[in-house]
Amino acid sequence: MERINDDTPANRLYLKGLAIRYERHIGKWLPIMRHLALRGHPGAMIELADWFSNDGSADPFGTPANAFSAAGLYRRAYKRGDMRAAQHMALSCFNQNNMAGYRHWLGQGAKAGDGEARQERRQFETRLWHADAGEVRRLRPKQKRDGFA
């Protein structure tokens, strides 16, 4: 789960929604995240976008112009200053075999100050080690630079 520094009602509600979803607390997390996303909470937008694009197909991903598609939520969260959204958007583009989008969103993350995105963009690999890469025929073996060895 995330750690949030400022104690606002929106952040408390966000943490409650995360606890319901991931730690099996009593309640329904989706209405909470939807409520927060409508009010511009970046973390809730990312959670909803992850849930929308969970199966990896192009249909639920949508376009950035559609505010409540996964792509639209990632874009809006990025515009609100959450650089995790750029990383999520980049990997979603990669999983759809959209290398131009993957490179663009790595660049957006690097501009926002994400060191990992900057390094990935510098190396720019068209093949990755995770299982979703195998589904789009871009799988490669794990290597030391991936941090596993």
Describe this structure in words.
It contains nine helices and no strands. The longest helix has 14 residues, at 9-22. It has helices at residues 9-22, 29-38, 42-52, 58-61, 70-79, 84-95, 99-111, 115-123, 131-135. Helix 1 runs antiparallel to helix 2 (29-38) and helix 5 packs antiparallel against helix 6. It is mainly alpha-helical and 149 residues long. The two termini are 25 Å apart.
End-to-end Cα distance: 25 Å
Task: Sketch the topology as an H/E string, one letter per element.
Answer: HHHHHHHHH
Low-confidence stretches: none
Relative strand content? under 5%
What structural class should be given to the helix and strand makeup?
mainly alpha
Major sheet: none
Radius of gyration (CA) equals 16 Å
Helix fraction? 55-70%
Please provide a brief summary of the model.
This protein is mainly α. It has 9 helices and no strands.
Tell me the layout of helices and strands.
Elements: H1 9-22, H2 29-38, H3 42-52, H4 58-61, H5 70-79, H6 84-95, H7 99-111, H8 115-123, H9 131-135
Features:
globular, 149 residues, 59% helix, 9 helices, mainly alpha
